[in-house]
Amino acid sequence: MNDLGGHALYLSPKDMQLGRGETIADTARVLSRYVEAIVYRANRSEDMAELARWATVPVINALDNREHPCQIVADLLTLHEHWNGSFKGRRLAWIGDGNNVCNSLLLGCAMVGLEFVGAVPEAYRPPKEVVARGEALARATGAKLSITSSPAEAATGADALYTDVWISMGDEAEAESRTAAFQGFQINKKLLKKAKPDALVLHDLPAHRGLEITDEVMDGPQSVVWEEAENRLHAQKAILEWALPANRGAAR
Ligand code: NVA
Known about the structure:
This protein is α/β, with parallel strands linked by helices. Helix content is 44%, strand content 11%. The chain has a 5-stranded parallel beta sheet with strand order 5-4-3-6-7. A two-stranded parallel ribbon has the order 1-2.
């Protein structure tokens, strides 16, 4: 916001009346009288939807348990830069949890026509509704979309490998069972070798080195993790500029 010439207020849960029992609908109505846009990070996607329903200014989803769309804009920007501005004929393999990042990535790939293959253990697959939405989007762009249980199968011949933590915010109570279920869903040198020789490696961070990704890969020549992190800044500015009411007419 500062780079765009505005300023931002950070409201932590303890700064908000939500913590004292105000409804999300009422908070949405009050905030809408004060600010031009709301960037919200929520534990529950239902809360995100409720805030968006009642706010009269744009609500940008900065992560919830179901989706993480802002991250994916930065990821697609990173790939776009490396692939000379085209996703055509490219395939991305997701290795790990069918979580919020996976869901949004699946949808984002479908929107831009990039093939998405997810390697996800059976019990942690993306929700059926998300896959159905992805399939509908993919029909319009011609993107392919598939899910397998085999990291090796997904990685073979891929143009990009992407992973995320095995235990997302809110999943802490399942740490033990998740750690056991995701053994083998690690991006390491052996898995990377199955991908194209110039395949790129992404991670939305924070990474748990030694679990979902090895140091060797994360710090290796195929990793674009730091560019991806930087692109969060640029992509988020683009999203704000697109969403801010003053720019809406011009940006669309
Ligand atoms: N899947 C992770 C993403 C962190 C940016 C989580 O929800 O914790």
